[in-house]
Amino acid sequence: MPKSHREYLEWTPERLVRWAGKSGPSTAGVVEAILAGRPHPLQGYRSCLGLMRLGKLYGADRWKRPAPAR
Fold it and tell me: Residue 42 carries which DSSP code?
């Protein structure tokens, strides 16, 4: 199995939701909705891992602030 595929095996839906919960209940809700909205939870992993990347890039304080109204 390719290395990139093996890395996905380290992540479970519970682990993704637990990680999201550290950023707040809203983030956990988004991750749960992403995972529940797919026929199989693995199909939502890329989206959830993308959220993780954004959280690392912008930090927790900026992540929790609401988006400005347009």
Answer: G
